[in-house]
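How a chain folds remains the central question behind the approach discussed here. No coordinates are needed to read the tokens, only the vocabulary itself. For completeness, the protein is quoted in full, as a sequence line and a line of structure tokens:
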Amino acid sequence: MPEKNPKPAARKPRTDALRNRERLLNIAKQAFSRHGANASLDDIAKQAGVGPGTLYRHFPTRDALIEAVYHAEVEKLASAAREYAASKPPLEALRSWMLLFIDYFEAKHIIAPALNTLPGGPTKLYEGSRGATFGAIDLLVKRAIKSGDLRRDVQSYDMILPLIGVALVPSNPDWLQSAKRLVEILINGSRPR
């Protein structure tokens, strides 16, 4: 017997809705960077050129918006790995992604105060993003090994853990430059002899 009220098929979001969401995320990232977790959601909506109803349709709570900003940054890393693998030579793709990863950590430091306001802190967010991050670098490291640009004994963790270490302890104002130099050190130290 056929179902009386079948559920309609889920529609893909409209292009303008996707644009609004992306604009909201970019503006929110800037607002949380400048004003912390208490940035005005009404101001975020206004700067994005949408009404508060549009903001709340996409992000029903402040916490949902903060989490979405973080997830958007992680997704940029994952999609960049795929894009770089498709468009750049293996070593250049790896180098570009590692530099982007450093930029991601810089953004993470900027929005950290907002992330720290989430119930239970940001630990679950960080753990949830770990798989996407390690999957991205693993793709690029394996590709560089296969091409002969990196030694066969290099592991993906060898390339990313030192970057995480440097990024977690930005003890001086030039940590960003130090982290970018570390990318070159890691790549050069991992090349075949």
About this structure: The longest helix spans residues 62-87. The mean pLDDT is 85. Residues 21 and 57 are 10 Å apart (CA to CA).
